[in-house]
Design brief:
Chains A, B: Pfam families: PfkB. Two copies of one chain form a homodimer. By secondary structure, chain A is of the alpha/beta class. Helix content of chain A is 36%, strand content 26%. In chain A, strand 11 (174-177), helix 5 (180-188) and strand 12 form a beta-alpha-beta unit. Strand 3 of chain A pairs parallel with strand 9 of chain B, so a sheet runs across the interface.
Chain lengths: 320, 320
Amino acid sequence: MILTVTLNTALDLTYGVPELVPHASHRVSDMSERPGGKGLNVARVLSALGHETVVTGFAGGSTGTVLRELLAARPADAPAPGTAPAPLTDALVAVAGNTRRTIAVVDRATGDTTQLNEPGPLVTADEWTALLGRYEELLAGADAVALCGSLPPGIHVGAYAELVRAARTAGVPVLLDTSGEPLRRGIAARPDLIKPNADELAQLTGSREPMRATRDARRRGAHGVIASLGPDGMLAVTPDGIWQAAPPARVPGNPTGAGDSAVAGLLSGLVEGLSWPDRLRRAVALSTATVLSPTAGDFDRAAYEELLPRVGIEEHAPAA
Amino acid sequence: MILTVTLNTALDLTYGVPELVPHASHRVSDMSERPGGKGLNVARVLSALGHETVVTGFAGGSTGTVLRELLAARPADAPAPGTAPAPLTDALVAVAGNTRRTIAVVDRATGDTTQLNEPGPLVTADEWTALLGRYEELLAGADAVALCGSLPPGIHVGAYAELVRAARTAGVPVLLDTSGEPLRRGIAARPDLIKPNADELAQLTGSREPMRATRDARRRGAHGVIASLGPDGMLAVTPDGIWQAAPPARVPGNPTGAGDSAVAGLLSGLVEGLSWPDRLRRAVALSTATVLSPTAGDFDRAAYEELLPRVGIEEHAPAA
């Protein structure tokens, strides 16, 4: 089983409008509602890849109830022909506060998206203690764990460092995907993997030069750093070597969720004992197939299968 | 008791953002949630004025549940010193669909608001029949009724005409506040009052000249037409005469809900047997005090008391 942790889950709403005009009134022409937060997105992709997955984190209030109902009722996400997704189990911890909403306003004229994110519920010390207990129980049965996304109000900035240490103590490989100070603190606790994008790396290291920034991030404590280069693919600096992986071509589409699909690719590859090049091929093919999907955050299964053998892998000389 | 009908109730969310930038991601800095839809706003003001009020219309799904909880728990809206608001009773009819959300995104740099309105639940024929039954029961105890706002999907465009006729059959004075084709059809059923703004009047009559458009609207069937002139006050063309009412000065602020406060002023004045000039004074003072209130849709009680004697009333010569 793969465990994903989403401390700040979200009810993701997508509103289509004919054209977004600031300071005007808009009638929403089409809308959808789905369970969100990075770890839930990662879990959905893992499940579609056939990996049994458990999600934990916090959910509460009326929006939390809707999120959990949608999670229980979720349709099979792009399953391969003749296959069903693996079980995705809800082990979220109930909180008194209201799970946040995020709203993606999609301008149907241009396809551009304007995002509005509520901050999330205030989590109490008792609720955090309950999460820690649930997490340690779940680690006992986990082959790998992903810690994903922002922290809700009330959670201390070293929370991810604490979760990384618990995973390492339990001997469970841990991937950390967050940003800012929680990432800086979390890295110092020596996670197996981090997956920053260019902005997150620059914020962490002060450098926008991918190789320099990625190596710097490794020196700060992460065993492996997989830097997302956006449409150019990924750069992996690991204890076993350095690789760059690139999709066969740049593709048009919506990058929402592409990073979460990459995390699912890396983590499933690790659990399956794939080589680094194969893990990277999967991560790049999944994230490209997510950009290509008409539904934000889903991946296009046919595009994934087609892209997988065509991802370019280049091995770099070991670090000086 | 005064009855208000809101066929398309809404959970009104207000999101403050430091600055709204299209196609960017925003963290919501402050937010509030309250029961909305024009008839609910009218009822809140009526209750604050000391009038026992019953609300009906539709509510459903998780957003409908939150709306009803907030309605039951609503704080006293700007009650006069030493007074409490009169009871506001929830007689909403449950529907299977989800009550819509409306989102007002307030740019905290400029105060400008960008509005996003979900369309509302699809209401079935059986649910409409249930509403008609509830409405006729409630009319038996009503001194006046206000029919407010847009129609949700599934409701026929002559719905307000049907509700106007039922009120007239029951001998209950009826005010209709809607727009477009539902207004056009509703007027033909001869409501006691309509309260269009300049845009609604122009859409109905083709004229932007207030006196001409207001008289035209009366000829179409409304016994009395109270045209909102925005910051310039109101023009009332009634069977008893023609009056224009204006606030002592233009005021800065947020006009959201000013029209609903005016409806509450007109309806409470009718039930109390006030003269037309006194009803108009109340409506203009309430709507101006709503623009002045820091919370969208609430009125500033002190400003209302202060403005009331200062509203200017001018009587026009009877229609030629």
